[in-house]
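Page header: ASSEMBLY MODEL / two components / 940 residues total.
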Amino acid sequence: MNNEIAVRFDGITKAFGSKVVANKDVTFDIYKGEILSLLGENGSGKTTLMNMLAGIYYPDKGKIFINGEEAVITSPHDAFRYKIGMIHQHFKLVDVFSAAQNIVLGIKDEKYNIKKASARIGEIAKKYGFIIDPNKKIHEMSVSEKQTVEIIKVLYRGADILVLDEPTAVLTPQEIEKLFVILRNMRRDGKTIIIITHKLNEVMEISDRVAILRKGEYVGTVETSRTSEKALTEMMVGQKIELNIDRSEPKNSEDRLIIKNITYKNREGVLVLDDVSFTARSGEILGVAGISGSGQKELLETIAGLIKPDGGDIIFHNPKKDKPVTLFHKTLKQVKELAVKGCFHYPDGSPVNLSGISDKQIKRLIDEEKIIFNEDEIMDLRNKTPLQIRELGVRLSFVPEDRLGMGLVGNMDIVDNMMLRSYRKGNPIFVDRKKPSDLADKIISELQVVTPSSHTPIRRLSGGNVQKVLVGREISYAPKVLMAAYPVRGLDINSSYAIYNLLTKQKENGAAVIFVGEDLDVLLSLCDRIIVISGGQITGVLDGRTANKEEVGLLMTKHSKEVETND
Amino acid sequence: MTNSNKTQQREPLFHITKRTDIPLWKSLLIRVGAIVLGLLIIAIICSIMFGINPFAVFATIIEGNFGTERRFWILLQDTALLLVVGLALIPAFKMKFWNLGGNGQVLVGALATVAVMKFLGGELPDGIVWVIMLLASVIAGAIWAVIPAIFKAFFNTNESLFTLMMNYIAEALVLYFVYIWKTGASDTIEPMPMGNLPTIGNPFLLTIIVAAIITVFLAIYLKFSKHGYEISVVGESQNTAKYIGINVKKVVIRTLVLSGAMCGLVGLLLAGAIDHTMSATTAQNMGFTGIMVAWLAKFNPIIMVLSALGIQFLTKGMGRVQKKFGITSDAVSNIMIGLIYFFVIACEFFISYKIHINLKSKNKAKNSDGGNK
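Prediction written out in full:
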């Protein structure tokens, strides 16, 4: 590393609309031949700043200097002229083209010659240690291979300054190690590398210096060797925070949800869930680890009744033995049906027979808690719709991955979003907004949701607040099973830990929590048990207290052919 | 730096940002400005292309609507009809079901009405005939809308094309029955003598009252009923609807029954209370104009009263202009109405977005010039 400046941001400001200021007067330097981590929470303006370097956005104010000269970058094409290449978080590749075809796509100044290009790709790969087959089609590739294509694409164009936007988010620990080796090789070759990330351990491992943004403003740059994760967090968040997950020992744990041999083929006929079996127990958090897209989404949606499995059983075990029935989760009709089957006894132990008793009297018996279950309820939820599951009295809550596309409605306000689960109750024709409104107020105050009011459209809230609303609604029904898919994706550190604490509290309240996560460190410190899913199969069940990252990482790629070809 | 880089030193001339909120007066000002601008262009076209005094044109537009008491009542009646068609479309549109079949649904409603009038008018007491007319027209409209809805719900067919095609079928059906039931010397059905709907106060008031009732009903239905809530959820995200256990198929079909029934009702009013007969043009293209009524008001039933009134005002006024100035071609008034629509719709862009002109680049050019000297 030398002290020659490769990129200088000078007073960069960029606003979206009149209220959202993504970058405000950002000024700092990036040296030639260094790996610089751009650290900041979601929404702190990291990606926007780099997009201005890559010509996707144009700054409202301020100047960018490249190698000491003022640069005007109005398009990605301009960026390449300045030898800047960006690898975006969402890959921009043509699926049906081969790696080589994608790499040469859009290059104007050389003739289309795939053989020559392949040879040059081979040279680049050898120089930096990539493993790539130039003739392989993109749709046949794993995420890590696609990323390799993206990186080679910018190197092929002669980029000296590389920007990588959250490159490790989609990789396994082993793949991350390989990527880091390559990045170090590139640094040795004199390339300037900027990594956008919010994972502190990776920042510490790979970068020479760390530049920190907070709420669009530049906080400072520190040398990695002279700082610590804790100090970085404080710079990033702007205050001292405790990042501890208080993992309590599971109490009175019993089998709650038993998944047996679930198999599911999607519309394209691909086997997404392959003979999946596991048990979720009450009072514990069961983590689901895996590369994203390994079947986690389908697994949860199958349990929630959103997709029908092709085979297997979903057994819900409701601990009702010796507990009185309530009208909160059973209708009068259901109680009568169960009574006919002989499911109840009176407090004195005699069997309940409701024939010939009026509805009013039955209701009174229920209110007085005189009708008591003989046994635990065991129900098969397979092939039940979400509504049927709810009508069965199964308190199953689900925080889906797609918050605004499934869990909530972005254009509706918080009150109407509260209503999603409860609107059927009460008056048969008109909706009752009173109770949802109370619930909204309660969630806003208890979970400290930052919102102008409970009548603000939910899409205007920040990611963390949206998630608090969703999780708040789902836990307000005192769930017996709580499923959460990537509940902290896109959330800042404070909100993330707030969510972890909420999940832990549900576990302590006796819920069986199923947590699908991507950050292995979090999975290992939050979960009591971890199942690892790879290619739709469960490849391992581990104890969250004793498992280590490498172990989980290996299981995440077991059975997965794509990664084997990489070795 | 190389020369090629220097030629690239151009900054974008302007950029566009989304407005997060805009004060009401500002958005109204933009809308009024757009209409004024539209009128100005019309005035220019009038005087240059046709040599007509533009102020005479504007005066005639007003005269065409308010010149006589009858014209004024017709304006209100036709506004009411257009409003009901627009209202009929919004439950479907809120669900993102693009019902382009308003015309067809109105026509089959009219067809059913005329059929009842023809065969039962005078045979049964008037009151019973009216009830049968009401049921027949509403059911006919509902059937016409629900057929595409069923295909959409179960086979995910494209509802825009399907409803559009249903228009042509309805039109052909009406032509066919006009041909076999024709009573006049030309190939038309003479106004029905029996079974016409009663007159309340004056011949126009019934339609206006029906429209007022439906407006209030629909505003409440969409905002406060469970059905209305379900429509919003399905329209925003089918995934969310499935997640909370809404039966999307059921909601689609139920909503289109409502949508079609309301269009059928317009058919009843047209055939049973206004025209007393039917033809292939009975629907007056309201199935499409109604779309504009709905969009201009952003699906707000109350504001739709204004958008329907505005559109009818222009149409009636321009009709009068054509007559008075002896313009034989419809094209002229259509161009003018089209211009106004264009400005009104285009101004929405300036309400949602703000345009910043980059003055910075000019300053810089000056600076570099200075440097060269």
